[in-house]
Write a structure and sequence with these properties.
The complex is a heterodimer of chains A (about 800) and B (about 160).
Chain A (H helix, E strand, L loop, with lengths): L27 E4 L2 E6 L14 E5 L5 E6 L12 H4 L1 H5 L9 E2 L12 E2 L2 H19 L4 E5 L4 H4 L2 H6 L5 E3 L8 H11 L5 E2 L19 E5 L3 H4 L8 H8 L2 E5 L12 E3 L6 H14 L5 H7 E2 L1 H8 L4 H8 L3 H13 L3 E5 L1 H4 L4 H14 L9 E2 L14 H4 L2 H4 L9 H7 L4 H10 L7 E5 L3 H5 L3 H11 L2 E6 L4 H6 L2 E4 L8 E4 L8 E5 L11 H12 L1 H4 L5 H10 L6 H6 L4 E3 L27 E2 L3 H5 L27 E5 L15 H4 L6 E4 L1 H7 L6 E6 L2 E9 L7 E4 L44 E7 L8 H8 L4
Parallel strand pairs in A: 7-8, 7-16, 10-11, 10-14, 11-12, 13-22, 16-17, 17-18, 23-27, 24-26
Antiparallel strand pairs in A: 1-2, 2-3, 3-4, 5-6, 5-18, 9-15, 19-20, 20-21, 23-28, 24-27, 25-26, 25-28
Chain B lengths: L3 E5 L9 H10 L8 E10 L5 E9 L7 H4 L6 H5 L5 E5 H8 L6 E3 L5 H4 L46
Antiparallel strand pairs in B: 1-4, 1-5, 2-3
Classes of the chains: A alpha/beta (about 800), B alpha+beta (about 160).
């Protein structure tokens, strides 16, 4: 993206928007008694980088009074979800922490032992402990614990430049979220995740002359309406449906889209790779593939054909437990449509053979010729990557230190791809102190004990035992910080900060948005600003080239160093569309060398993967039965007769966030376990009754929602639950372990490359309990409803 | 004066909650009260291939169609924020035309606080006001016509002493 491309995106007005509106308003303007600031938020509150258009109405006293969707945004067009609609309640929540706090290590877990302190004192305590631990054990004994969604979780700047550790660690087993898909795409196509082309980058959107409406959209293990996955505005799917796009839905769970899909394949959880291989086999055998694309742009087609022939539809139907004719119908419908796209979701990552599932989906997209076709899959070009992953490694992590990254020996395909220590091995290192102890930690937008981590009690015990010093960085107290930290550093909300937001974490970016600061709550820093302030305090030499935080933001996000002036200038556009090109592989736009083709060793889409082969993985896709299933563990069927799938999103919450916001909590007050009416009857469970769900890894108490959303053999449990209204001290820790579905999800069951975790395909049993743990919404209102 | 309402294209309501939450923010309604709420029907199977699964955003008796906003020419806040863009504000006349364009829509004219809208009770003079009760002698029947629905009740008997 050139600097000249940062110009206000053309507006496409929604037909429901009144003629009295704010189209064409500048980045800041007056409206009656209010100063209105237009901004594109990217956390906190947590969300993927969609960067929806937002108008923040601030009164004369500098207080945010009203939040409204900005109709100037080309994709969201004024629409907004409950999490930003309640932004005011988040900013002024009585539970928010605005001052740094300290606590003696011996008092960890005691919610009453925190003492407020100055920023200077907090920094001095950090410096003292940091220098002591680095001197005594080495910088590699520091872990940066990251979560998803918020900008802070993506900032390699924290571990590298601020603390100088190679152990930046996303806290989910097998990094089973987005990155396996990115990695598979990068290894097979030379570009990362290919997003559905929803015309987000085109000036006239759906009606743009360059665009062709997607005929068929396949939703594969994805619920984008609720999750806005990885920066994709979920309701773009509805926009397309209303224009005529037809759906195929592949999911063990009925969602709203399933009911509107032409074909809904309600497969047994975790068997997606078998289904994908069968669809490839049908498309190849019935000669429905794009011959030209396969001949000129793919590598290894014959071998792929041979491999997928081992998974005929009849065999897949048996494995997936779906009618075989649905598999044929879906393969034909997808292959015959043009343009067609597959949106591949989190479920693809959350299984042991997730890398093979991705491999098959990429092959489907490729052999049907939908790569970089308007309305098909948009492929990230050679210029993708505004969220610089490698920032700080070269200068701050010498090679010898880099090689000490936990997991580098065993899982180079994981560690080198995402520059993260392998999560499951990190847990072992914390528990065993091998290959070396982990002594210091800090949170990068993560709440592992309530959300990110599997078997959170294991993580709890390991972190409490191993870490001599730990820093919490957040806006609210949570179970993880309460249990493990000695210092709390408060940060700003999106309304109090500047910054950028590139959709889809930068590959396939369609809009580039800017955050503008509208209010101040005590000069709190954003994650980026905190990294600058703390980094400069610990390592002045590394940060001396930037005079202030503002210059760092410019360098980090725009890749220019112009004293902050460039940022000031371009940010006034608020939101710009990113110029895109179609058929980039024919134009030399996918490779750094400018040659035509894909950025792979063979220059083609590698259906037979040279990269997988190099990493010791099978170069062709294969299916593995989920490790914990009624099929693989028949001896456990009596004990654990049900399939457990977890983690479907709701609009009320971003993972473990928003539970202390009354209006969002009201949408979903209690942790729900979905169970089929017939299964519920057999188990003696009534709708709304509390149940115990358990397996060999742990248990949770949840509230039954009796529904046909799941079939008789499957239950689905919500994730991310904790109860900010409850006692925060040990052992209760806001009830984080009571209704924690991650108690039932193991660590250490990833695929060969270190990626993947079986969170969506496990086994369990359920029984009713007589107690009720219903949330008292009046208590939530009393506790959190009065803003400060 | 024209009547205003909401056209709801419920074919595409996804239950995102934006209407309800915006409404509460706009009006400051506490937990438990709202001007619009989403109701669900489904999912349930019609047959092996067809699933009924619909959501219905329905205004409550606290919906004033965002009077403060619409007076300034703006659309109600639920219409502004609806993620699926399925809410339309307008006159019944305009919206009726839209109603004919496709199935699975409904047109609703809400009323804010209907009990209050009816106003205080005031007696209206009418013809029965002129009727005065007559002064006449009355004799008893000597028996109770109706008894309580109880196993021990003796229909037709009454305790003379109690009279």
């Amino acid at each position: 993206m050139e600097l000249s491309d940062y110009k206000p995106a053309p507006v496409v007005k929604l037909d429901s928007l009144s003629d009295v509106n704010d189209i064409g308003k500048p980045w800041r303007y007056e409206d009656g008694d209010y100063t209105v600031t237009r901004t594109c938020p990217w956390s906190p509150p947590g969300c993927h980088p969609v960067g929806c258009g937002l108008k923040l109405y601030v009164n004369e006293d500098g207080r945010l009074e009203h939040v409204e969707g900005d109709e100037n945004h080309p994709v969201t067009q004024g629409r907004l979800c409950p999490r930003c609609i309640t932004l005011k309640d988040y900013v002024y929540s009585p539970a928010r922490i605005l001052t740094p706090m300290k606590r003696d290590r011996s008092e960890r877990g005691n919610a009453d032992a925190w003492e407020e302190c100055s920023w200077d004192e907090a920094f001095a305590i950090i410096k003292e402990n940091y220098e002591r631990i680095v001197a005594e054990y080495g910088p590699e004994t520091i872990i940066g614990m990251s979560g998803t969604g918020r900008e802070g979780g993506t900032m390699s700047l924290y571990p590298t430049m601020v603390f100088g550790t190679p152990n930046y660690c996303y806290m989910q087993s097998g990094y089973a979220c987005y990155t396996p898909r990115l990695a598979a795409a990068a290894y097979i196509t030379g570009s990362t995740y290919s997003e559905w082309d929803y015309a987000g980058a085109l000036p006239d959107r759906w009606d743009d002359e360059r665009y062709t409406l997607t005929e068929v959209l396949v939703m594969w293990g994805k619920a984008p309406l609720e999750s806005n996955p990885d920066g994709f505005f979920g309701h773009a799917v509805v926009d397309a449906m209303r224009r005529g796009t037809r759906l195929i839905q592949i999911d063990p769970r009925v969602n709203w889209l399933s009911a509107r899909a032409d074909i809904f394949i309600q497969l047994r959880a975790g068997t997606d790779t078998a289904l994908a291989m069968a669809m490839l086999d049908i498309i190849i055998k019935e000669d429905l593939y794009d011959h030209e694309f396969v001949e000129y742009w793919c590598y290894g087609f014959e071998q792929l054909a041979e491999r997928v022939a081992t998974m005929p539809a009849e065999k897949a139907a048996e494995i997936c437990q779906v009618p075989v004719e649905k598999i044929y119908a879906a393969a034909r419908m997808y292959a015959k449509a043009k343009p067609a796209a597959i949106m591949w979701g989190l479920a693809v990552d959350q299984k042991t053979d997730g890398m093979q599932n991705s491999q098959c989906i990429i092959a489907l997209q490729a052999i049907t010729g939908n790569f970089d076709r308007p309305g098909g899959q948009l492929v990230p070009g050679a210029d993708a990557g505004h969220n610089e992953l490698g920032f700080g490694y070269k200068e701050c992590i010498p090679d010898e230190l880099f090689q000490k990254m936990i997991g580098m020996d065993q899982y180079p395909a994981y560690c080198n791809m995402i520059l993260n220590s392998q999560c499951d091995l990190m847990l072992e290192a914390l528990e065993t102190e091998k290959p070396y102890p982990i002594r210091m930690g800090f949170y990068m937008a993560s709440n592992p004990l309530s959300n990110t981590s599997m078997e959170p009690k294991r993580w709890h015990d390991a972190l409490c035992k191993s870490l001599e010093f730990c820093i919490g960085i957040d806006l609210f107290m949570n179970a993880s910080i309460q249990a493990t930290c000695d210092i709390f550093l408060p940060i700003a909300t999106t309304a109090e900060r500047e910054g950028t937001v590139f959709t889809h974490y930068a590959p396939c970016t369609v809009t580039a948005g800017f955050m503008h600061k509208a209010v101040d709550c005590g000069g709190l820093p954003s994650d980026m600003e905190l990294a600058y302030r703390l980094g400069k305090y610990l390592h002045p030499e590394r940060f001396s080239k930037w005079a202030n935080e503002h210059e760092l933001v410019e360098a980090f996000r725009l890749g220019v160093e112009n004293g902050g002036k460039t940022f000031d200038e371009v940010s006034k556009c608020v939101v710009a569309q990113v110029p895109i090109e179609y058929y980039k592989y024919e134009k030399g736009l996918l490779r750094q060398d400018g040659q035509v083709g894909f950025a792979t060793p063979t220059g083609r889409v590698e259906l037979w993967s040279t990269a997988y082969n190099q990493f010791g993985e099978d170069p062709l896709p294969y299916y593995i039965e989920p490790e914990f299933s009624p099929v693989s563990k028949p001896e456990l069927v009596d004990e654990y007769p049900l399939i457990l799938t977890t983690g479907a999103r709701v609009t009320a919450f971003f993972h473990s966030e928003n539970r202390q916001i009354p209006y969002t909590r009201e949408l979903n007050p209690d942790p729900l376990l979905e169970i089929n009416p017939k299964t519920a009857q057999e188990k003696g469970i009534a709708d709304g009754q509390w149940v115990r769900v358990w397996n060999m890894f742990g248990e949770a108490l949840m509230k039954a929602k009796v529904t046909d959303a799941v079939d008789e053999k499957t239950v689905h449990g919500q994730h991310g639950w904790w109860f900010p209204e409850q006692d925060g001290s040990e052992p209760n820790l806001y009830g984080t372990f009571r209704s924690q579905i991650n108690n039932l999800c193991p660590n250490g069951h990833m695929g060969k490359l270190g990626f993947g975790a079986p969170n969506k395909c496990l086994i369990c049993n359920v029984e009713p309990v007589s107690e009720s743990y219903d949330t008292d919404m009046n208590l939530i209102w009393e506790k959190f409803g009065k803003l400060v | 004066m024209a009547t205003y309402g909401l056209l709801i294209d419920y074919e595409y309501c996804t239950n995102c909650g934006s209407c309800q939450v915006s409404c509460k923010e706009e009006h400051g309604y506490p937990v438990g009260k709202t001007g619009i709420a989403v109701h669900a029907d489904g999912p349930w199977y019609i047959d092996d291939d067809n699933i009924n699964f619909n959501y219905f955003p329905l205004p409550t008796d606290l919906c004033d169609l965002c009077k403060d906003r619409t007076e300034r020419g703006r659309e109600p806040i639920c219409v502004h924020h609806c993620l699926a863009n399925i809410l339309y504000y307008g006159t019944v006349e305009e919206l009726s035309k839209k109603l004919e364009e496709k199935p699975k829509q409904m047109l609703i004219v809400p009323q804010y606080m209907p009990r209050v809208a009816k106003g205080e009770f005031v007696h209206q003079e009418n013809a029965t006001d002129l009727h005065k009760a007559a002064a006449m002698d009355v004799k008893g029947t000597g028996a109770s016509t109706f008894g309580a629905h109880r196993a021990d009740a003796k229909v037709g008997e009454y305790e003379e002493d109690a009279v």
